[in-house]
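Quick illustration for those who missed Monday's session on complexes.
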Amino acid sequence: MTANAERAASMEKIVALCKRRGFVFPGSDIYGGLANTWDYGPLGIELKNNIKQLWWKTFVHRRRDIVGLDAGILMHPRVWEASGHVVNFNDPLVDCKTCKARFRADHLIEERLGKEAAGLTPDQMSEIIRTENPACPKCGNRTLTDARQFNMMFKTTIGPVSETGVDVYLRPETAQAMFVQFKNIMATARVKLPFGVAQIGKSFRNEITPGNFIFRDIEFEQMEIEYFVRPERAAEAFDAWLDAMKAWVGALGLQDAHVRVREHEQAELSHYSDRTLDFEYFFPGPMGWKELYGLANRTDFDLRQHQEFSGEDLSWFDQESGTRFLPYVIEPTFGVDRTILVVLLDAYDEEATVDVNGKADTRIVLRFDPKVAPYKAAILPLMKKPELTEIAKGIYDRIQTETDLLVDYDETGNIGKRYRRQDEIGTPFCFTVDPDSLDDGSVTVRDRDTTEQDRIAIDDVVSWLSSRVR
Ligand code: ATP
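Prediction with adenosine-5'-triphosphate bound:
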């Protein structure tokens, strides 16, 4: 495992880089911000889209057993009664009587008292808080209340006036729509067991202790699959999904030492789960190991609940045996924002160099896998002279029309600074058009990771780049 002390990345550096280069901005920034909301800027949206498209390609297009869904954020309120969210989707909270700050009781116990809190009831947590009497993390007074349950779903109202309107929730997970539409998908998609339904979309949680940048937001995106299997095949499907998730982590280019898989203990399991694994990532600084993704065996809990609450038959008819049963569900779930955060943290590197004047300098480089890099290359005329910019723009146009690879074009500033800017936003290659290009029909290609330079023919740029990025 890479010790944190040896890591170039820190959360502070990533937050600063994200704002400086346009990956992620604080939400509502000019109004002083709205706590724990974040907006993806011009480069952030490209990184995000690349990750979502790679996921969709990997798990939907390249497989014949998974179909897609894009459901609404608002659903019938009964959905959340059936799913158990109205009753169970709670965080245990404590208040500080002095400064009125509010904290997650389990986090407080783990972080301030160094005790395991997973699976404890609010009463058990209150008991620990009373006995150990920890100081308020904000004001330092030992005036914390008992732990109380707080529902994390955001509520809103459909209808012109709140008195006669219908209270609905913003979905706290994308999963439920896949169960609610199970019957329609069965009837239309010509699927047979085992098969999965995949969805990417926004979810909302009124997290009381959000933070750590985009690790825990109140509005975030999830990429989820509900994989329906015969009950007797659930364990086997679970193992296959564990392998598929490991392969995904590998495809993102995350360092092995920074990812581990942790099995939930019995007491820690959610109300619907028979078995859960967390993929954990080793975050720098005080965060350490924290959940990145989850894999759960949800049994037939959700289909059974929705069958009961909706009155619709959601069973599967097995042609071979002539029997009906409720399939089990294996759920691999991936947070988009957490993926972006770990891809940034993992890619961040600093290299000691010297600048043009021989002074000590630091090269900041995001070593993104080319698949997820916002720009696959930058096209740079060495000088802003028409004969050079014309060739450079021609290369840019060819790449944009002949491929789906996004490239940058930059003609201002000295070339060293332009290379550094591309290093810092993770562009794997730079093509530089110089006066020699006019004679030999070639450009210089510079590699982000090694900074080595080579010459290649202008006519080969498109195929060369395509082969490097695939
Ligand atoms: P945590 O224990 O960190 O609150 P969770 O176990 O509640 O997470 P799940 O309900 O399993 O999370 O959600 C599935 C995935 O969605 C998580 O693995 C994570 O990647 C992402 N996710 C969950 N909550 C948030 C959030 N508040 N902000 C950003 N991503 C989130």
